[in-house]
Design a protein that fits this description.
- This protein is an alpha+beta fold and about 500 residues long.
- It folds into three domains: about 5-90, Orthogonal Bundle (Arc Repressor Mutant, subunit A), CATH 1.10.10; about 125-260, 3-Layer(aba) Sandwich (Thermophilic metalloprotease-like), CATH 3.40.1830; about 285-480, no CATH class.
- Helix content is about 35%, strand content about 25%.
- It contains 17 helices and 23 strands.
- The strands form six sheets. An eight-stranded antiparallel beta sheet has the order 17-16-13-10-9-21-22-23. The protein has a five-stranded parallel beta sheet with strand order 6-5-7-8-11, with helices on one face.
- About 40% of the residues are buried.
């Protein structure tokens, strides 16, 4: 169990609010945010009597604001250690507001600020490194060429770092907002007929762009769309599809950069370890796994059927879509940062079977231990996790083909041996198989959706046209070609 405090917790109920509304108790919470301490330690730091501190800690513990984390021995005496359950506490808007829409909006905006601050702290020092890797991933960007950067509110700092790195190389960098405020603002500003006739971006802009970099984050951006906005979303999805199709037709490189946050990692052990995995993924040498990527890409290129077994009796069989372009072994890896995986589109309507996956993430929430049943290429049942009904409700509230299996990804990067909770990072880890539902357009498919779901699983056995390419989570380097072993995980 992860003993680290959550980033923030919502104070619900009058009892918890009363426990929080006390000057000494606020001081105790601030003290316990730094790590487990005894009542005596806190008393010394706050210059208050130990008995008084002990009384207040009991009240905070009963309210769920403080938790007992173990015991420690000091000389001859054993003492109880306590820690705050969160770094910050928010008062539930519902305690002072009866309108559910307003409650949700307030809670979402406050969460937005917490996530943004945390993300700034996490990425501040590493942004130049990520920016340099972006330009390395886009070798087409020589001086004088144009890079379009798309991103939302949590990615502005990284976008600025990419602009600085691009300008230093003589590349012209253009930024365009692609966050909730822009998308919903566009829906509000135009009628459905106007949206149906519009391109996603002005033609003059797209004709001058030589590469596109999209910065993505899993942090939720406020309340979901209202009914009027939702009704117009299919027109915006059409514009996104045509944008992706236009890039492919012109041969414009498209790179997706996944930006981490503490929310990604909070349910999967110490966030620091997961961030270390992220930085290893960013810093890895793509040439180290290039032979493995080429071998797998060549094997998948003409393959017809793929089978994934989860080691627990579950099995998923899919027909692979026909290759949409000649094999380019120089671009065997899926275009993303962090990168290090191979993906293949599946033939719509062919996936069948049941399989156990590790988790998925939707709306900033993890759903762990998800079991999936697929019929005729569609997700027919979700089970296993305690919040399965909530996940299904979220899926059904979206637009597009969220239930359709779009593609399968096989990770190749020896960057770690444990899942982090960030699907884009876990999907590149060696031996991790990821089932991707929703949009497939970035890979050349035709499916689109307002929600993309990724379900990673470890320890899987994979066969391609009857050939075992991975057994119990370990890739068969002999089958995938000589020189294809990039080494063990660090």
């Amino acid at each position: 169990m992860n003993q680290s405090p959550k980033e923030y917790a919502t104070v619900q109920g009058l009892g918890a609010l009363k426990a929080l509304a006390h000057g000494d108790r606020l001081g105790i919470l601030r003290q316990l945010r730094s790590g487990p301490q005894t009542a005596a330690d806190v008393a010394r730091a706050l210059e208050l009597p130990p008995q008084k501190i002990g009384y207040h800690i009991k009240k905070l513990e009963a309210a769920g604001l403080v938790r007992f984390v173990g015991t420690g021995r000091k000389r001859w005496k054993e003492e109880r250690l306590f820690a705050a359950t969160a770094q910050q506490y928010l008062v539930d808007p519902g305690l002072a507001c009866d309108d559910h829409g307003t409650q949700a909006g307030i809670a979402a905006e406050v969460e937005l600020r917490f996530r943004e601050a945390r993300l700034e702290k996490t990425l501040a020092e590493g942004r130049p490194q990520v920016a340099q890797r972006v330009l390395e991933k886009l070798p087409e960007l020589v001086p004088g060429r144009r890079l379009l950067i798309l991103g939302g509110p949590f990615t502005l700092g990284l976008a600025d770092a990419i602009v600085v790195a691009a300008e230093a190389r003589g590349v012209i960098a253009l930024q365009h907002s692609w966050g909730r405020s822009y998308i919903f603002g566009r829906l509000d500003a135009h009628t459905a007929e106007e949206l149906a006739a519009q391109d996603l971006f002005p033609a003059a802009l797209m004709e001058s762009v030589d590469a596109v970099c999209q910065l993505t984050s899993s942090i939720p951006q406020g309340a979901p769309p209202n009914p009027e906005q939702r009704a117009k979303l299919p027109h915006l999805m059409r514009a996104v599809s045509e944008f992706q199709h236009g890039l492919r037709e012109r041969g414009v490189p498209f790179l997706e950069v996944s930006v981490p946050s503490s929310r990604d990692f909070e349910a999967f052990g110490p966030p620091e370890q997961s961030m270390d995995t992220y930085w290893r993924a960013v810093a890895q040498d793509p040439e180290a796994i290039a032979p493995l990527a080429r071998g797998l890409s060549e094997l998948l290129h003409g393959a017809q059927q793929l089978c994934v077994s989860d080691g627990k009796g579950g099995e998923l069989v899919v027909d692979l879509a026909a290759s949409i372009a000649p094999l380019d072994t120089g671009r065997s890896l899926t275009p993303s940062l962090p990168g290090g995986s191979c993906s293949r589109l599946v033939e719509p309507g062919t996936a069948r079977g049941s399989i156990a996956t590790a988790y998925t993430m939707a709306g900033g929430q993890h759903y762990q231990g998800t079991g999936l049943e697929l019929e005729a290429g569609r997700l027919a049942k979700v089970s296993g996790c305690s919040d399965a009904a909530e996940l299904v409700e979220r899926i059904d509230a979206e637009n597009g083909d969220v239930r359709c299996l779009a593609y399968i990804t096989i990770g190749l990067s020896p960057i770690g041996d444990r899942l982090t909770g960030k699907t884009s990072l876990d999907s590149i880890q060696a031996g991790v198989v990821t089932l991707a539902f929703g949009s497939s357009e970035a890979l050349g498919g035709s499916q689109s959706a307002t929600l993309d779901l990724r379900f990673p699983l470890q320890g899987a056995t994979v066969t391609v046209d009857g050939i075992v390419i991975q057994r119990d989570g370990h890739l068969d380097h002999e089958v995938l070609g000589p020189g294809a072993d990039p080494g063990g995980a660090p």
